[in-house]
Every structure is written in C-alpha cells, then in structure tokens.
Design a protein that fits this description.
The chain is of the alpha/beta class. Among the domains are: 1-192, Rossmann fold, CATH 3.40.50; 434-520, 2-Layer Sandwich (GMP Synthetase, Chain A, domain 3). Helices cover 28% and strands 23% of the residues. The strands form four sheets. Strands 1, 2, 10, 11, 12, 13, 14, 15, 16, 17, 18, 20, 21 and 22 form a 14-stranded mixed β-sheet that branches. A five-stranded parallel β-sheet has the order 4-3-5-6-7. A three-stranded antiparallel β-sheet has the order 8-9-19. Strand 12, helix 11 and strand 13 (291-294) form a beta-alpha-beta unit. Helix 2 (16-23) packs parallel to helix 9 (228-238) and helix 8 (194-208) packs across helix 9. 50% of the residues are buried. Pfam families: AMP-binding. Residues 17-386 form the AMP-dependent synthetase/ligase domain. This is Acyl-CoA synthetase. InterPro entries: AMP-binding_CS, AMP-dep_synth/lig_dom, ANL_N_sf, ATP-dep_AMP-bd_enzyme.
Length: 524
C-alpha cells in the first residue's frame, strides 16, 4: 500500500534504542519488575542505559558465536528483557525467535525443532522446571540469562566481551520471528522483515503522534508479540516517557498509574477488563488517560464505556484496531464517552486510507450480510513473508496474491465499516454472532468478568461464565439477561484463572470446548 512504502527503510530493531537515546538521552522508562539480565538497574531506567545494555548483550552473544543470519530462540521467564534481548540479537544481524514463557515445554521443543538448530537463550528456572532435556540436542547451544545448568553457558560469564559494531541487514531480510496465539493448536512461527514491520508501525504511529510528548505511554503487551515491536518504537522514538508492565494485577497497576499517570495506554482486552475495578479506585489512576488502545482481540463495549468514564480528560477516546499477528493492524474505530455500554462492539471500523485494504468474500455465492457473513480478507505491506518451517500453511491463507485470509467471518456496511461476527471455527448454527451475544451479556450483567460461548455436545451453544470474586452466578439475573437472545444451554461457571489462555490472554475457545465436552473444569 502506497503510504506504507514511501521511504520505508525497515524498522532497524538493532539500533532502535541508539537512535532513541540520541534524540532523548534521559528519556525515562519505568518498569513494574527488575530485569533478569540486569537487576542492578532497578525499575527506573533511561533510554541511554537501555541502549548501553543492548550493546553489552549483543557483544556477549557475539562472543558466544552468534553470527548474522542465524536464528536465536529466546524463551525465558517473563520480563521486558525478552524484548531487549531481541534487539541485541537483531543488532548482530541474527534473527530473534521469541517464544512465550507461557508455552509448555513440549510445544517449545517442537518450535525449536522447526527453527532447525538455533541458539537457545533461556534461564536456569526454565531448564529446571519446564523444558525437556531434548532441547539440548535440538539447539546449537544453550545460553542462560540467569541461574545455572549443566551443559549451558551463562551470559554473565561473557561480561566484558569486546563491543561489536551493529550489522546492517537488508530491510527485506527476516528481522524477527514471533508465534501466533495457538488458539487452535500448536502456534505457527510468523516471519517478519524490517520492511514489513515498518509498514505496520506507520498506522499506529500516526495515531500516537497526536499525544503530547510529555504524556507517559503505558504498555502492557506480551513481550514476545509483534505488537510490542511497534508499540515500543513509537514510544521511544517520539520521546514519550515509557511505562512497561509485565503484570496486569489491578493493585500493582493502580499504584504505578497513581504515581506516573499515563496519557496513553496500550493493553490486551482482557487486561482492560481486569482494570475496570480501577474506575472506583479513590486514587483515580485512570483520570489522566486521553487515549486507550487495544489491538489484539474483540473488546466488550461495557469495558470501553467504564474506562472512558474514569478519564477526567476532555473528549477521551478508546481506539480499537482490528488485525492479526500475521498482518498487523488493518482497520480501526474509536469510542467516545457518548457511546453507551450497548454500543455495537462488532463494528471494528474502516481500513487505514492508503495503507490497508479489506474485502469480504461470499461463502455461498450470495452477497455477504449480517445474516449471511462472508470470509474476511485483508491487504497490507505489513504481512509476514512465511511461516517458518510451514510455508505451505502460509500459502493456504493467501488469496489472489495480495489478499490474506483472516479466518474470521463478517460483513461490511454501505458506509464501508467492517463488522466482525466470529472466527470461522467458532461459528455456532443458530447464533448470528457469539461475540455479539457475549457483548450483550456483559452489558446486562455487571458481575461478569468473562463470558465465552462455545459449542457443546450436538452443537448446542454453551455459555461459560466467570464472576467477580468467583461469587455464584445469580440465576434470576441470568434468565433476565438471556431473554430475547438465541437459545443456549445453562451457563457453566468457571474460575477465570482456570480458563485456557494464550500468551496475549485470549481464551483458547477450541481448547475450552474440548475440556467442557470431556467433563473437565468448572468452578470448584
């Protein structure tokens, strides 16, 4: 798309913090945790300190024989140093492959196998408790960010290694590999280039450009997700004080936001749902927020409405982007305080002019509509170039060359607004949109903290609900809430922490349906 291509030199992750520090040397970065690779730096750092840290660890990786074009898998205990290590790897012209700390050991081993003998950066805790011994045979070598383990080399032992000049790779060369959410099985490894990352950076950077440089930008995003590597550059290059959150616990977040009130927050939808309780916090930690932003999944209008109500800024906005790890942001819409909790959450907005495109393709020969949704296909220069080790699967999702099959169904209105109704695999006969039903239930039942509708036996729609403090669901209120909706089975109550989640806190709907049909789970 033309506006994504003009002057696109690639994202250049390896020198990102060098360039940011040159512009804003004392630019502050606030963390809610210390870095495993540099605990001595504490939780309040500067861009200059982070640039130095990345340069230091790039030199250690070089001393460990990591070379340009090689793959380095990073799978360690969760923390912002995952993203910093990715920058250090990219600084050498090597390709970081980021695997979530939440993945089980067997899945990590399988993904390492697909990469074909990469270097593995992990920690002693992962090797001791999570990873199988087979990773030593699958990896070229194992390097440790903390702890110790037989057969592994601590990066601490390479401190003081001679510094190495940054390696410049072609913008069309792979620059980062992330994995998909894995909601339907083993995650796929998505290969990004410097140019594709820069292309998906631009739509989001154009939005944040309206935020004052004095306003702190808070980010709670999976450190292995592609979104982190557009959100992070936006903040540091534009000069915003950056708040990086590992955890979304409302108590911790409320304390940090009360001390450093953000003007812009980027987070997962499920995290925003947890933060609804901050609306009533007497410290008013959300009062300074001008813009809320979420890109990862459907977000319920009730959550949007409550968060906007907590802002004391004039005309605050909630921006919801529709996209996917494989293509980046595609369409967007905004909510204002004027839109109530019953706002149409299925409307995900319109494409970015000159940057992205959307079309809806009929599934049965009839025009796509609300009652007959079609397959959503999109176009963007931010699209990945392959799935590592599974190029045929990548080809299956391409259509007519430039178009990418999202795996979602929906329709477009006469004004061009895209409405997302469901994932293709989540469609339940008799229900136009499970997501729309979930939106309605959230609006009608304030005690809900999660509701997921999945197919049960014989295709029956089964609502799985979680309540605040795990209180028993009010059955009378439930019956009133479902009045007028499509027929469903009786609700099944679970604890929120027992639901199967992805690295970006999405609910694994297929896995949840399987557990239900196997008679597992539920409130204890």
């Amino acid at each position: 798309m033309i506006l994504q291509r003009i002057g696109n030199r690639g994202i250049r992750l390896g020198t990102l913090f060098d360039r940011a520090a040159a512009r804003h040397p004392a630019g502050p970065v606030v963390l809610d945790h210390t870095l495993d690779i540099a605990p001595q730096l504490g939780t309040r750092l500067t861009l200059t300190e982070l640039a130095e840290l990345i340069d230091d660890f790039a030199s250690r990786l070089w001393a460990a024989r990591v070379r340009p074009g090689e793959h380095v898998v990073v799978h360690k205990t969760d923390g912002f140093d995952i993203s910093l290590l990715a920058c250090a790897v990219a600084r050498l012209g090597a390709v970081p492959v980021l695997l979530s700390s939440k993945l089980d050991g067997a899945t990590v081993a399988e993904l390492i196998r697909r990469v074909d003998r990469p270097h593995l950066v992990t920690d002693g805790a992962k090797l001791e408790h999570d990873l199988p011994d087979t990773v030593f045979g699958l990896a070229e070598q194992v390097l440790l960010t903390s702890g110790s383990h037989t057969g592994a080399t601590p990066l601490a032992s390479l401190a003081g290694s001679p510094r190495v000049a940054p390696v410049t790779m072609s913008p069309d060369h792979p620059t980062l590999v992330t994995h998909t959410s894995g909601t339907t099985g083993t995650p796929k490894l998505a290969v990004h280039t410097g140019r594709s990352f820069q292309a998906r950076y631009r739509p989001q950077a154009s939005v944040v450009a309206f935020v004052s440089k004095r306003e702190p930008l808070a980010v709670h995003v999976s450190f292995v997700h592609s979104r982190m590597f557009t959100a992070m550059p936006i903040a540091v290059l534009q000069g915003h004080p950056l708040i990086v959150l590992r955890d979304d616990d409302p108590a911790t977040v409320g304390e940090i936001f009360a001390q450093a009130p953000p003007g812009f927050i980027e987070a997962h939808p499920n995290s925003f749902m947890r933060w609804e309780e901050l609306v009533d916090d007497p410290r008013r930690p959300l009062a300074n927020v001008k813009y809320f932003s979420s890109t990862f999944d459907a977000i319920h209008p009730r959550t949007v409405h409550r968060l906007l109500g907590a802002s004391r800024r004039e005309h605050p906005l909630f921006a919801q982007a529709y996209g996917q790890s494989e293509v980046g942001p595609i369409a967007a819409r905004t909510y204002t305080k004027g839109r109530g909790a019953e706002a149409d959450g299925r409307c995900v907005g319109v494409p970015f002019p000159g940057m992205t495109g959307v079309r809806v393709v009929s599934r049965d020969g009839n025009p796509p509509s609300r009652t007959n949704p079609g397959n959503i296909e999109v176009r963007s220069d931010g699209r990945i170039i392959t799935y590592l080790g599974e190029h045929e699967r990548w080809e299956q999702q391409t259509a007519d060359g430039d178009w990418w099959r999202m795996g979602d169904v929906g329709y477009r209105t006469k004004r061009g607004c895209l409405h997302l109704l469901d994932r293709e695999i989540d469609v339940i006969p008799g229900i136009e949109s499970t997501l729309a039903v979930e939106d309605t239930l959230f609006a009608r039942l304030p005690e809900l903290v999660e509701v997921i509708i999945v197919p049960g036996g014989h295709g029956t729609a089964v609502p799985v609900v979680c309540t605040k403090d795990d209180k028993p669901l009010d059955q009378v209120a439930w019956q009133a809430a479902v009045r007028g909706l499509a027929p469903m089975a009786d609700p099944v109550q679970w604890r929120l922490e027992d639901l199967p989640h992805t690295a970006t806190t999405k609910i694994k709907r297929v896995e949840l349906a399987r557990l239900l049909q196997a008679g597992k789970g539920g409130a204890q």
